[in-house]
Structures are given as C-alpha cells and as structure tokens.
C-alpha cells in the first residue's frame, strides 16, 4: 500500500461503517432523530462504535501489511525531510512516511482510550482517522516553546502508518528540505541519538539542533498504540 492509497482505504471503511454523521447528523442535513438527545454526533453510541471499528481495523491489518514503496536510497544524493516543531524541539521525518500536511482539526476523544498516546479521532474529509500524540510517543515536554507574539500555525500531519493513515498534531511546520546524505550519515554515526526515542541522529538546522526521526521505529510505535 502506498501513501496515496491510505486515505482511499479510510474512505472505503467510512462507507462500510455507514457514516451517518455526514448524511443525517451534524455534518449532514441534521435530520437524525437522535440529535435532539445527543446534541452532537460525537456523543452518540453509533459514532463511538464507528471509531472503535476504525481502531480494530489497525489491529487486524497487521497480519497482512506491506512495505511502503520507496526509492532506493543508494540512487539519491539527498533525502527529503519534513521539518516540524513539537514544544521546544525541532524534528525531521522522511517525506516517504507523509501523506499530507493538513489544517488543525477538532479532535474527538473516545471512551475507554486504548493508550495514553491515543488522543481520539479526527474527521478528515468525512472519514474518521485516529489521532495520536507524538509528544507522548517521543516522551517530550508538553510545552509550546513559542516566544510571546510569534506567529505560528499549528498543523496536523497525516502519516502513512502500517494499518492506514493516522493524524498527529504539531505546533509548527517549517517545510520540506532536501538534506545531503553525507550530513545524515554523519548524524546517524555520531552516537548522539542513543538517549532519544525513535531517533536516527541529531543534525544542525537553522542554528538549532534537529532530531532526525527513525520512521520505521516511529511507525511501529504508532501501530502498537492503536492495537
């Protein structure tokens, strides 16, 4: 499964689940007779059951998951990394794991959360997508790290996890940068990543230190948080 297929899979699941919230619920014509009782679809047992089925899908898919297609690293001289900030820390993630950068969406919590990293679900173009906290997964301090008066726009990253796409909120996105492989090789061999979770190395970036994330380890952690 490649990155472009993951959102279509989610939409197929939404149709199989019967996304009534988009037809007769709060995002539809609001003709559902249960709305007067629940006020919002996220308070309805049908919505919660749909979210639970979404998370079950991640667990079931682990028995038949494929590798994300990539270009052979030996054929390129640079690697593309998405640079983003969580709290006071800047991080880089290989773009092959990224589906898209999206505006921040409302996150709806779920009863009986499966893990501390699972924040809930977000509605991505009508489909329910699991939302995770990278702050929790990476063991970071939950602080904004933004100077007063600074103009930043929080975003959501849609990541191609093994069982389907997941969304993670981030405090700021700098953009995609092509990094010389020699810099990345030096960073991975420096040994400075040993004390940081899911990290391949630390490299200089615009006068700061940036953690280069190990996408395979991170995606495996994402999967464990959903199953």
Description:
This is Chemotaxis-related protein WspD. This protein has 227 residues and is of the alpha+beta class. The protein contains seven helices and eleven strands. It has a five-stranded mixed beta sheet. Strands 3-7-8 form a three-stranded antiparallel beta sheet. Strand 5 and strand 6 form a beta hairpin. The longest helix has 16 residues, at 45-60. The chain is elongated. It starts with a helix and ends with a helix. Mean pLDDT is 78; it is low at 1-11 and 63-74.
Walk me through the topology.
Elements: H1 3-17, H2 20-23, H3 35-38, H4 45-60, E1 78-86, E2 89-94, E3 98-103, E4 107-108, E5 118-124, E6 127-132, H5 134-138, E7 155-161, E8 164-170, E9 172-180, H6 181-189, E10 199-205, E11 208-213, H7 215-226
Parallel strand pairs: 2-11
Antiparallel strand pairs: 1-2, 1-9, 3-7, 4-5, 5-6, 7-8, 10-11
Ends distance: 19 Å
Query: Strand order of the main beta sheet, please?
Result: 9-1-2-11-10
Question: What is the residue-averaged pLDDT?
Answer: 78
Overall spatial form: elongated
- Radius of gyration over C-alpha positions, nearest whole angstrom: 19 Å
Count of helical regions:
7
Q: Do you know the CATH topology?
A: OB fold (Dihydrolipoamide Acetyltransferase, E2P)
Number of domains: 1
Structural class: alpha+beta
Briefly, what CATH class?
A: Mainly Beta
Helix content: 25-40%
Query: How many strands?
Result: 11
Task: Give the CATH superfamily.
Answer: CheA-289, Domain 4
Order of helices and strands: HHHHEEEEEEHEEEHEEH
CATH architecture term: Beta Barrel
Strand fraction band?
25-35%
The main β sheet shows up as: 5 strands, mixed
Low-pLDDT segments, ≥5 res? 1-11, 63-74
Protein name: Chemotaxis-related protein WspD
Organism: Pseudomonas umsongensis
């Amino acid at each position: 499964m490649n990155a472009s297929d993951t959102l279509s899979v989610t939409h197929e699941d939404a149709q199989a689940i019967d996304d009534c919230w988009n037809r007769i619920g709060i995002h539809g014509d609001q003709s559902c007779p249960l709305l007067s009782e629940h006020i919002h679809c996220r308070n309805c047992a049908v919505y919660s059951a749909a979210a639970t089925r979404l998370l079950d899908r991640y667990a079931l898919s682990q028995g038949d998951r494929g590798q994300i297609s990539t270009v052979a690293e030996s054929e390129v001289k640079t690697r593309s990394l998405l640079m983003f900030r969580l709290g006071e820390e800047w991080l880089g993630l290989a773009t092959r794991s990224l589906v898209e950068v999206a505006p921040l969406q409302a996150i709806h919590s779920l009863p009986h959360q499966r893990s501390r990293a699972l924040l809930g679900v977000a509605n991505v173009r009508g489909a329910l997508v699991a939302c995770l906290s990278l702050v929790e997964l990476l063991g970071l301090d939950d602080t904004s790290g933004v100077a007063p008066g600074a103009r930043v726009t929080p975003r959501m990253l849609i990541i191609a996890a093994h069982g389907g796409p997941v969304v993670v909120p981030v405090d700021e996105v700098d953009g995609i940068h092509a990094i010389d492989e020699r810099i990345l090789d030096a960073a991975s061999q420096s040994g400075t990543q040993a004390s940081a979770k899911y990290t391949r190395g630390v490299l200089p970036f615009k006068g700061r230190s940036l953690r280069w994330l190990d996408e395979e380890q991170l995606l495996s952690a994402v999967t464990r948080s959903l199953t």
